[in-house]
Amino acid sequence: MGAGRPKAFLSLAGRPLLLRAAEAFEAAPDVEAIVAVVPAGEQRAARDLLAPLRKMTAVVAGGATRQDSVRAGLHALPAGFDGIVLVHDAARALIEPSLIASVIRAAIEAGAAIPVLPLVDTIKRVRDGTVGETLDRSELAAAQTPQGVRRALLEEALAQAARDGVSLTDEAMAVERLGHRVAAVVGSPRNLKITTPHDLRWAELLLASAVEKS
C-alpha cells in the first residue's frame, strides 16, 4: 500500500480497516470473543482503537509469518475455549456478519470451513513467461476469510506444518495437509482484501453508494 504504517490502521471512509473488520465480528451473534493480532509495537494503538468493543478480549503482537501470528492469537483465547476459531484478515474490512455466520455453521458441521468465490477469468498455468496449460475454472475458487476451524484441529494442523517446515498462505492449507475436509461456503464480492490504493478507493465508492441508496 506504501502508506508508511500498517495497513490495518489505514482509514476507510473515516474508520480504520481494523475497526471496521472487528465491528462486523462484534455484531455477529455467535461470536463470543475477539482477539486482535497486530504488528509488534502497535498493541497500544490497537487497544485504544478497539476499546469500545464489548467482545474484544485481547490485543497481541503477531509474528514473522502468518502461522506465527495465528498461534499468538490462539494463545490469547479465553481459557477453556474449545470451539470454532475464526481467522480473519483485517484488510477484508467489509466482511458482513451474515457471512461470518455461514462460516461458523459450516465449520461446526465439518470441523473446518472457508468462504470462496468462483473465478470468472480464464486461468492459465504459466512457467517462465510461457503458458503451459489452461485450467478448468469450474473446479477453482478464490479463498477468502474468515476461515473457521475447530480449535484443536487448527492447533494440530499448525503444529504439523511447523514440523514439516511448511509456509502457509491460509489456515485451510494447514488443515488440508492433514487430509481433513474443509467445507466451502459462498463468499461475498464485498469481502475484498484491500491490498492496493485502487482497492481502497473501490471500497470507499462501495460505501458511498450504499449510503446514497439508504
Distinctive features:
214 residues, alpha+beta, Spore Coat Polysaccharide Biosynthesis Protein SpsA, Chain A, two-stranded antiparallel sheet, 38% helix
Gist of the model:
The protein is α+β, with helices and mostly antiparallel strands and 214 residues long.
Structural domain count: 1
CATH class: Alpha Beta
End-to-end Cα distance: 31 Å
Which spans have pLDDT < 50 for at least 5 consecutive residues?
none
Mean pLDDT: 95
Output the structural class.
alpha+beta
Helix content: 25-40%
- As a percent range, the share of strand residues is 15-25%
What's the CATH superfamily, by name? Spore Coat Polysaccharide Biosynthesis Protein SpsA, Chain A
| DSSP E strands, number | 11
Helix-strand pattern? EEHEHEHEHEEEEEHHEH
Shape: globular
Q: Which CATH architecture would you pick?
A: Alpha-Beta Complex
What is the gyration radius calculated from CA atoms?
18 Å
Give an overview of the whole structure.
- This protein is of the alpha+beta class and 214 residues long.
- The chain has one domain: Spore Coat Polysaccharide Biosynthesis Protein SpsA, Chain A, CATH 3.90.550.
- The chain contains 7 helices and 11 strands.
- It has helices spanning 17-27, 43-50, 66-75, 97-110, 151-164, 171-177, 197-213, and strands spanning 11-12, 15-16, 34-38, 56-61, 84-87, 112-118, 123-127, 130-135, 141-143, 147-150, 183-186.
- Strands 5, 6, 9, 10 and 11 form a 5-stranded mixed beta sheet that branches.
- β1 (11-12) and β2 form a beta hairpin.
- The radius of gyration is 18 Å and the shape is globular.
- The relative contact order is 0.16.
